[in-house]
Amino acid sequence: MKEYASLQTQLDLSQGIPYTPDWSAGADFIQIIVDACLQFKPSLILECSSGLTTLMLARCCQMNGYGLVASLEDGEQYADKTRDYIDRYGLSEYASVIHAPLQKTPLHGAEYDWYINDAIPDESIDMLVIDGPSGFIQKNARYPALPILYPQLSNCCSIYLDDAARPDEQAIVALWQSRYPSLRHEYRETSRGCSILTV
Ligand SMILES: C[S@@+](CC[C@H](N)C(=O)[O-])C[C@H]1O[C@@H](n2cnc3c(N)ncnc32)[C@H](O)[C@@H]1O
Questions:
Q1: Distance 102 CA to ligand 1 centre (A)
Q2: Tens digit of pLDDT for each residue in 52-81?
Q3: What distances in angstroms separate CA 34 from CA 94, 137, 192, one per listed residue?
Q4: Residue whose CA is at the smallest distance from ligand 1 atom 1
Q5: Which of 23, 50, 52, 130 to mutate to test the pocket of ligand 1 (most atoms within 8 A of CB)?
Q6: Cα–Cα distance between 126 and 149 in angstroms, integer?
Q7: CATH 3.40.50.150, domain 2-198, yes or no
């Protein structure tokens, strides 16, 4: 919890945060996405998995004066918990937590559990934050994010992948790069690794 204190101060989140040990994104990853959100002022942020990241990005949008975080969450109880915090801070104008159960999704000769497709807002995405679904559910669990969402990414979109130090995430980045050779990739040494890709 202590490592989130400077983010809480920066974002004036003094009424608590939806922190869950082992499940919340690390403070170093969140600091990267918070800095990017405040610098680039995206209109639509799409997030795969909700929680602490959603609250902090929603506050950034409020500080920017515009922007929306649309957060896909497969677990209904986690979606409700995130919404409670969004309401507590009066941020509902800046965040929409979408309960999106995972469904079998065929992709490139394999089948993945991925967020139900009609839940994804049909708008151009300026910032994509990928911290779900949980890595243990299948091999390369987060691979579908780019093939499914790529047509919706704006031409200045940045993609932030958490847990990028894991072998699965490294394989996912390599697969994305071979499919989309124009992507630029930067790796940041955070506690769990952060891959930043730009379109
Ligand atoms: C790594 S968590 C990230 C959540 C969010 N980005 C954050 O920073 O708080 C990814 C997913 O794990 C699931 N999850 C969250 N807390 C959990 C818990 N205590 N036990 C099992 N699954 C959990 C949720 O479905 C969530 O979308």
A1: 14
A2: 999 999 999 999 999 999 999 999 999 999
A3: 14, 28, 17
A4: 23
A5: 23
A6: 11
A7: yes
